[in-house]
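FAQ

Q: What does a record look like?
A: Structure on top, sequence underneath. For example:
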């Protein structure tokens, strides 16, 4: 993989989307880093692994990237639908997958030496983690949909949890029951493809009868 290293850039995603498959962009600092739904991703210079990888587009790209990142980070890492990595209930990393024709640009931000209040950090060397992540991404982007979803379910912190779905002013709660073959989340019998998932503890008791 050809790696382009930058001291500072608005967003590694913006640089990577112009590059061919097999490229990666790594930055010490982003001035306009972004996550899912256009949210900002901020961290001090040198405190995180901030990288974007250019891969062949495939269905379930976000889920393949999630499994790859979780495996690279360690066995204790769990996946929150659809794109976050958690350790012991605290957010460690976020993922973003954007399609550009026949390519997919996967952006990953992992807290290493700094994290926002209430978030987790990973005590890993950045270059070692980058190499592990690149290898896992190559492997999982070549895996079958069945293998990807199976591995994602095994690491899921969302399935089996009582959650609240928030989307454009619509909110509802229910049990996160399943992940469908296209990555949709089934909550209380409803199909969810976009929106925020808030994990609620403890789960409300089941109604009598």
């Amino acid at each position: 993989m050809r790696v382009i290293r930058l001291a500072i850039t608005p967003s590694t995603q913006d640089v990577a989307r112009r590059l061919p498959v097999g490229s990666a962009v790594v930055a010490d600092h982003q001035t306009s880093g972004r996550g899912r739904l256009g949210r900002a991703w901020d961290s001090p210079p040198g405190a995180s692994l901030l990288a974007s990888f250019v891969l062949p587009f495939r269905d379930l790209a976000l889920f393949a990237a999630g499994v790859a990142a979780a495996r690279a980070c360690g066995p204790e890492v769990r996946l929150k639908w659809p794109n976050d990595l958690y350790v012991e209930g605290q957010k460690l990393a976020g993922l973003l997958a954007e399609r550009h024709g026949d390519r997919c640009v996967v952006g990953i931000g992992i807290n290493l030496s700094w994290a926002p209040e209430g978030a987790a950090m990973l005590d890993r060397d950045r270059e070692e983690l980058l190499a592990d992540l690149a290898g896992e991404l190559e492997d999982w982007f070549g895996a079958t949909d069945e293998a990807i979803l199976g591995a994602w379910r095994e690491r899921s912190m969302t399935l089996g949890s009582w959650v609240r779905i928030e989307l454009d002013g619509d909110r509802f709660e229910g049990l996160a029951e399943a992940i469908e073959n296209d990555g949709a989340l089934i909550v209380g019998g409803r199909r969810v493809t976009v929106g925020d998932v808030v994990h609620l503890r403890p789960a409300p008791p089941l109604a009598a009868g």
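Q: Is there anything notable about this one?
A: The longest helix spans residues 126-141.
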